[in-house]
Write a structure and sequence with these properties.
The protein is mainly α and 784 residues long. Helices cover 69% and strands 1% of the residues. Helix 10 (230-275) runs parallel beside helix 20. Residues 543-648 form the TMC domain.
Length: 784
C-alpha cells in the first residue's frame, strides 16, 4: 500500500482483489486517520461555514493521469489523496517523522489526553496542512522532530520503545530520537525536585538490566551460529532451490532423531554394561577379515549386540551365584536390573520418538500449509526478501537465494496458466495406468526374487559344506541382492516416469516417492518375515537375536556402500561424459530416490535397535558422511532443476512417510518380537523368560513380595501397561491431536479469508469517503 504519488497506478483505491496480501495494520491506520480528518472537516463546514481554499495543482497533467476512478476528481482531492499516510510513508524522513508524530498524539490522547476538538484550531491537523508533509523544508522538519521528541517524552518507556522500533528510520536516527527524549525527560525530572531524581541504585539496576540483556542476546546469537550446517544449507538453497534443500533438511532431522535415541541407549544400557562386563562364556572367534562388512567375528560378543548383555541385577554380589552362602554380609551396592532396564529403555525411547515425530509432523504441517493466498508472494519476495544486515561476504549468496525463489514462484505460476486439454488428459491417464501396472509388476517380481533367494540361502546355510571364510562371505549375499534391487529399480522407474510427461515437477516427485516406497516396504516386510519366522525356528539353540542384529548391520553397511557407488557412477561419471562430449547437461539431483534411501536406512535402524543398541550410532555416522558426500557431489556434478519448483510441502510429506510406514512398521515388528517371540535360551538379558515382556511382570511380582505397600504400582502396571486399552487410548489421543491441528489450520484459513474480505470492504469505504469529499468540493465550486 505504500506508493509514491509520482508512481500512482491508474487503479481506483480500494479496488483490490481480496486475495492480495495486504497489511491489516496499515489499512486500519489509513482508514482511521483519513476518516477522522474527513469527519472533522465536514463538521467545520457545517458549523462555521469554513471556506476551503482550493490550491492550484503543483504538476499540471499529473492530476488527470494519477487516479482514474468512476469519475474524474478535482486537483484538490487528488492532492489530499497524494498526502494520505499510506501514500507518504517511506518517501522522506520528514514525512515519516510527521506521520509518527500524529500517531504519538493519538496514542497520548488514548492515555487521558485532551480530545482533538478541544484543542486550539491552530494546533489541530487539518486537510490544508497535509500538503506541508509532502516535501518538508529543513526548518519544518526540525519543528516536527522537536514535536515528536516532546510527544515521546510523555509516553511510557515501553510505548516509546515500541514506537521507535516501528519507525522506518535508520538506526542512527532512532538512537538520536531515543537519546533526545531521555535527555529532555531527565532534565524535566531534575527541575521538578529531589523526589524525581535517579538514585545510585536506580542507575545500578539500569546498567545491570542492560548487561544481562546484552549477555542474553549474545548467548542467543551464539546458539544460532552453532546450528549445524547453517552456511551449507544456505548455499544449497541459493544455488539449487528449496526442492534440493528439502533433502538435506530431512537428513538433518534424521540426525536429531538418532541423537535422541543414543542419548537414552548409551547411558542406561551400553555404559552400564561396559562398567559391569559379564564373564565370557564363548571363545573368541577367529578374524576372517570381513568383520567391518559382516558385523560378525570379534564384534559378536561385544556391547554392540543383544547377546552380550547380562540377565541378572548388576552390582549385586548374589545375583550371579546360585548359592547364597557366598554372599558377603552387609554389602554396599546399588542394584541395577539389567533385563528391566533393557526393556524399559527401548520402550521409552520409542515412545519419546513417537511423540517427537507427531509433534514434528504437526508443526511442519502448520508451516508448509500456510493459511491465506499466495498470489501476493511475488511482490513480497521482490520487496521484502533482502536482509539489510547481511555482510558483503554473504551478499552474493543471498542474491542467488532470492533469484532461485523467484524462479520457483514464476514456474509455479506459469504451470497454472497452461492446463491440459481433455484429450491430453485422457491420453495421460492411459499412459499413467500402463506405467503403474509395469511399476507394480516390477515391485512384485523383485519381492518374489528376494523371497526365493532368501529360501536358497537359508537351505544352503543349513548344509554347512563350505569353509568358514566362504560362509562368512555368504552372509553378504542377501544384502547385496537387496541393495542391487534398490539401486537399479529406481532408475527403471525414472525411465517409466519420462513416458508420463508430468507437467508439475512436484507431482513427478510424489509419484516417484510412492513407487519407491512400495518397493522398499514390500522388501522390508519379506525380510521381517524371514527373520522372525525361519531364523527363529532354525536358530533355537543359538542366539538368533544377535544374528538378526548382524543382518541389519550388514544391510546398513551395504546400503551405505551402494549409495557411494551410485554417487560416484551416477553423478560423477555422467558429468565427465557430458564434459567429454561438450554438452552442458549435468545430471539433476534425484530428490525422491535419495529421500527414500534415507527413510530406508532409518527404518533399518529402528528395526534393529532391540537387537543392536549401538545401531543408531552407526546410522548417525552414516548420515554425517552422507551429508558431506552428497553436498560435495551436488556442487561439483549436478545442476539446478531445469523446471524450478517450490518444495513448500515436501518436509511435511517426508516426515509423514517417516512416521506412518516407517516408524509404525518398526514399532509393530518390535512389539511382535517383545510380546510373542520366545527369546534365546543361551544369550541375552531375557534368556530365562518365555517372552521379553515377562521381565516387567517378574519385577512387579518381586516388588510386591518385598514391599506389600506398593500395591498401587502393581495396579498401574496391570491396568495401564498390560491392558491394551491404554495403548489404544494413547494412539487415539495422538490421532486426535493431529486431527485438531488440521482443523485449527482450516479454521485459520477461513479467518484469513474473512479478514481479506474485510480489507476489501475497507477499500470500498475509502472510495465512498473519497466520493463524499469530491462532492463537497463540487458544492463549494457551484456556490462560488
Amino acid at each position: 500500500m505504500a506508493r509514491s504519488p509520482s508512481f500512482i497506478l491508474p487503479i481506483p483505491e480500494g479496488r483490490e482483489s481480496p486475495s492480495q496480501d495486504l497489511s491489516p495494520y496499515d489499512e486500519n491506520v489509513v482508514h482511521d486517520s483519513f476518516h477522522q480528518l474527513i469527519q472533522e472537516q465536514s463538521q467545520r463546514v457545517e458549523a462555521d461555514s469554513l471556506e476551503l481554499q482550493e490550491r492550484p495543482p503543483r504538476d499540471k497533467g499529473r492530476g488527470s493521469q494519477s487516479l482514474r476512478g468512476p469519475q474524474e476528481y478535482c486537483s484538490a482531492t487528488l492532492q489530499i489523496l497524494a498526502n494520505m499516510p499510506s501514500r507518504t510513508i517511506g518517501r522522506s524522513r520528514g514525512a515519516i517523522i510527521s506521520q509518527y508524530y500524529n500517531q504519538t498524539v493519538r496514542l497520548r490522547r488514548k492515555n487521558s489526553r485532551p480530545l482533538l476538538r478541544e484543542m486550539s484550531r491552530s494546533a489541530q491537523p487539518s486537510i490544508r496542512q497535509y500538503d506541508l508533509e509532502l516535501d518538508l523544508t529543513p526548518r519544518e522538519e526540525e519543528e516536527k522532530r522537536s514535536l515528536l521528541v516532546k510527544e515521546l517524552q510523555g509516553l511510557t518507556i515501553t510505548q516509546r520503545n515500541h514506537m521507535l522500533r516501528d519507525m522506518p528510520l535508520s538506526l542512527t536516527e532512532k538512537r538520536c530520537l531515543r537519546q533526545d527524549s531521555c535527555i529532555h525527560r531527565g532534565r524535566q525530572r531534575y527541575h521538578q525536585g529531589s523526589q524525581t531524581q535517579l538514585y545510585c541504585c536506580s542507575h545500578l539496576k539500569y546498567h545491570c538490566i542492560i548487561a544481562f540483556r546484552s549477555l542474553w542476546y549474545g548467548i542467543l546469537s551464539g546458539l544460532h551460529a552453532l546450528k549445524p550446517w547453517r552456511c551449507h544449507l544456505k548455499q544449497i538453497s541459493g544455488q539449487f532451490g528449496s526442492s534440493v534443500l528439502s533433502y538435506f533438511l530431512f537428513l538433518k532431522t534424521l540426525v536429531s532423531f538418532n541423537v535422541l535415541l543414543l542419548s537414552l541407549l548409551l547411558p542406561f544400557i551400553v555404559a552400564v554394561q561396559v562398567a559391569f562386563p559379564p564373564t565370557s562364556e564363548f571363545p573368541s572367534p577367529h578374524s576372517q577379515g570381513l568383520e567391518l562388512f559382516t558385523g560378525a567375528g570379534r564384534f559378536t560378543h561385544t556391547v554392540m549386540y543383544y547377546g552380550y548383555y547380562s540377565n541378572f541385577t548388576l552390582n549385586q554380589p548374589c545375583s550371579s551365584h546360585q548359592n547364597s552362602d557366598h554372599c558377603p554380609p552387609r554389602a554396599v551396592h546399588l542394584p541395577y536390573n539389567m533385563p528391566l532396564a533393557y526393556l524399559f529403555t527401548i520402550g521409552i525411547s520409542f515412545f519419546i520418538t513417537c511423540i517427537t515425530l507427531v509433534y514434528s509432523m504437526s508443526r511442519s504441517f502448520g508451516k508448509s500449509y500456510q493459511v491465506g493466498s499466495t498470489l501476493g508472494v511475488h511482490a513480497i519476495t521482490v520487496f521484502c526478501s533482502w536482509d539489510y544486515r547481511v555482510t558483503q561476504r554473504w551478499a552474493s549468496l543471498q542474491h542467488d537465494n532470492i533469484r532461485t525463489q523467484l524462479k520457483e514462484l514464476l514456474a509455479e505460476w506459469q504451470l497454472k496458466q497452461h492446463p491440459r486439454s481433455v484429450c491430453g488428459r485422457l491420453r495421460q491417464m492411459t499412459v499413467l495406468l500402463l506405467v503403474w501396472l509395469l511399476s507394480l509388476g516390477s515391485a512384485l517380481g523383485c519381492a518374489i526374487a528376494v523371497y526365493s533367494f532368501s529360501e536358497f540361502m537359508h537351505e544352503n546355510r543349513e548344509i554347512r559344506t563350505q569353509s568358514e571364510k566362504l560362509q562368512e562371505a555368504s552372509l553378504l549375499a542377501l544384502p547385496l541382492i537387496v541393495c542391487i534391487i534398490n539401486l537399479v529399480v529406481p532408475y527403471l522407474y525414472n525411465v517409466l516416469a519420462s513416458w508420463e510427461q508430468h507437467d508439475s515437477p512436484v507431482l513427478e516427485v510424489y509419484v516417484a516417492i510412492c513407487r519407491n516406497l512400495i518397493l522398499k516396504m514390500v522388501i522390508l516386510g519379506l525380510l521381517c518375515y524371514h527373520w522372525m519366522g525361519r531364523k527363529v525356528r532354525s536358530l533355537e539353540d543359538q542366539c538368533w537375536e544377535t544374528f538378526v542384529g548382524q543382518e541389519l548391520y550388514r544391510f546398513m553397511v551395504m546400503d551405505f556402500i551402494f549409495t557411494l557407488v551410485d554417487t560416484l557412477f551416477g553423478e560423477l561419471v555422467w558429468r565427465l561424459i557430458t564434459e567429454r562430449l561438450k554438452r552442458d547437461r549435468k545430471p539433476e539431483f534425484d530428490v525422491a530416490r535419495n529421500v527414500l534411501e534415507l527413510i530406508y536406512g532409518q527404518t533399518l535402524t529402528w528395526l534393529g535397535v532391540l537387537f543392536s543398541p549401538l545401531l543408531p550410532a552407526i546410522q548417525l555416522l552414516k548420515l554425517l558422511f552422507l551429508f558431506y558426500i552428497k553436498k560435495i557431489s551436488l556442487m561439483a556434478n549436478c545442476q539446478a532443476p531445469r523446471k524450478p519448483w517450490r518444495a513448500s510441502h515436501m518436509t511435511t510429506i517426508f516426515i509423514t512417510l517417516l512416521c506412518f510406514p516407517s516408524f509404525l512398521g518398526a514399532a509393530i515388528f518390535l512389539s511382535y518380537a517383545i510380546w510373542q517371540v520366545r527369546p534365546s535360551r543361551t544369550c541375552g538379558p531375557f534368556r530365562t523368560l518365555n517372552t521379553m515382556y515377562e521381565a516387567g511382570k517378574v519385577w512387579i511380582r518381586h516388588l510386591e513380595e518385598a514391599s506389600p505397600s506398593v500395591t498401587w504400582f502393581t495396579w498401574i502396571h496391570q491396568y495401564l501397561v498390560e491392558n491394551t486399552f491404554f495403548i489404544f487410548l494413547v494412539s487415539a489421543v495422538l490421532l486426535a491431536v493431529i486431527y485438531f491441528n488440521i482443523q485449527v489450520v482450516k479454521g485459520q484459513r477461513k479467518v484469513i479469508c474473512l479478514l481479506k474480505e474485510q480489507i476489501s470492504n475497507e477499500g470500498e469505504d475509502k472510495i465512498f469517503l473519497i466520493n463524499k469529499l469530491h462532492s463537497l468540493y463540487e458544492k463549494r465550486a457551484t456556490t462560488s
